Amino acid sequence: MARRRRVYEGKAKILYEGPEPGTLIQYFKDDATAFNNAKHAIVTGKGVLNNRISEFLMTRLGEIGIPTHFIKRLNMREQLVREVEIIPLEVVVRNYAAGSLAKRFGLEEGSLLPRSIVEYYYKSDELGDPLVTEEHVTAFGWATYQELDEILNLALRINDFLSGLFTGVGLKLIDFKVEFGRLWDENDEMRIVLADELSPDNMRLWDIETNERYDKDRFRFGLGDLKQGYAEIARRLGILPEAGPADVRGTGTLQ
């Protein structure tokens, strides 16, 4: 069988053309990156864990009416997703002070915010994903006011659901990043849908009792074994991979 055409490769995933028009295959790599790729490593099995965690969370969100690009998981490292036009924004929802927010405002890491805060970052590795306002977004044509309203509403609904889900397994959802895209149906009508992935790569998850971190901060700051942290999240959610997280096959397995 001929190798599928590669459409896009990012830091942690590769997109290939899908079996049907309007679909893509999303492949999860084992690459771990931080500080805009200044720190990089291969963590064997990370992609397997992220694939399963993202599948679980996308499926659960779909069940409560959140539109997503996710269709189904194909195997240990691949998902079938709908092809969307990605809106060039990283939407960050923060429930506790951490990361750049704590640094910008001199807040204690882990302190509860007065309310959830939603921030927008322009999706550009070259520019370091700068923080932007709604005025920037609409002035430069990245999204309309109506689309931003929809994005905000979806982001807050996602936050409400995930916060409750993770609390139920003893984890605090400190913050998370999501991306959205435009999806057109057969009648040429457009809707905004959740795209990309939902995994410990793009969220902070701390133990409720101990504040131990199970997310990518383990890799960023040398706080512990990254795969063990991700596996603990998967264990609490009840979704460890069938063969365990130590699948070592690389991109050559996709034909």
Q: Would you kindly provide a written description of the structure presented here, covering whatever features stand out?
A:
The protein is an alpha+beta fold and 255 residues long. The chain folds into 2 domains: 6-84 and 226-244, Phosphorylase Kinase, domain 1 (2-Layer Sandwich); 86-207, D-amino Acid Aminotransferase, Chain A, domain 1, CATH 3.30.470.20. Helix content is 27%, strand content 31%. It has 6 helices and 14 strands. It has helices at residues 46-63, 99-105, 134-139, 145-167, 217-220, 226-237, and strands at residues 6-9, 13-17, 23-28, 31-34, 39-42, 70-73, 78-82, 85-86, 89-96, 112-122, 131-132, 171-184, 190-195, 203-207. The strands form 3 sheets. Strands 8, 9, 10, 11, 12, 13 and 14 form a 7-stranded antiparallel β-sheet that branches. It has a 5-stranded antiparallel β-sheet with strand order 1-2-3-7-6. Strand 4 (31-34) and strand 5 form a beta hairpin. Helix 1 (46-63) packs parallel to helix 6. The longest helix is centred in the middle third of the chain and has 23 residues, at 145-167. It is globular. It starts with 5 loop residues before the first strand and ends in an 18-residue tail after the last helix. Residues 247-255 have low confidence and may be disordered.
